[in-house]
Automatic annotation (TrEMBL):
Naturally occurring in which organism (per UniProt): Pongo abelii
GO biological processes: mRNA processing; RNA splicing
Subcellular location: Cytoplasm, Cytosol; Nucleus
Ranges of biased composition (kind: Basic and acidic residues): 1-10
Keywords: Cytoplasm, mRNA processing, mRNA splicing, Nucleus, Ribonucleoprotein
Protein name: Small nuclear ribonucleoprotein Sm D2
Sequence segments annotated as region (Disordered): 1-33
Length: 52
């Protein structure tokens, strides 16, 4: 199965350093032009420019 023009979204929580001000979690997202699936795992993925 092939999935096209997908958007991956995640939240990254920065590690706190000693004596530093707390950082806020950052929302990240990226586009995946094609993602190929085989049974229960991802076979390969191709990164490309974001869909228009």
């Amino acid at each position: 199965m092939a999935l096209e023009n997908m958007k991956e979204m995640c939240t990254e929580v920065p590690k706190g350093g000693k004596g530093k001000k707390k950082s806020k979690p950052a929302n990240k997202d990226r586009s995946i032009s094609k993602l190929f699936l085989c049974r229960d795992s991802v076979v390969t993925n191709k990164w490309g420019p974001p869909p228009h």
